[in-house]
Amino acid sequence: MSYPYDSQASEEAELFKIKSEAADSVAAAVEDTRRCLGPPGVRGHKIKYDPPKWGALLPASLTNCDLGFP
Fold it and tell me: How far apart are CA 34 and CA 50, in angstroms?
């Protein structure tokens, strides 16, 4: 299965290659994260966005709007 931005993500990842000696630890960390996310992976991960809680960090135009997130 491919997604609209897969090729762009691959191109950008090429700019940030990891050193070969770090590859095993990075692969282990990625696998640990995949297990934590469960079967749907990152696409099943959800966050709760509560605009008022971000009031001190966001411009007013974003703190008083409903983006439709649960």
Answer: 26
Q: Is the pTM of this model over 0.85?
A: no
Residue 63: exposure state from Cβ atoms within 10 A (0-12, 13-18, ≥19) = middle
> What type of residue is 37?
L
Could you read off the pLDDT of 34-65 as tens digits, one per residue? Answer: 888 777 777 777 777 776 777 777 776 766 65
| Rounded (10°) CA dihedral 19, 21, 27, 32 | -120
Domain residue spans of the chain:
6-63
Which bin fits 9, alpha (ψ -120 to 50), beta or left (φ > 0)? alpha
CB 59 within 8 A of CB 51: no
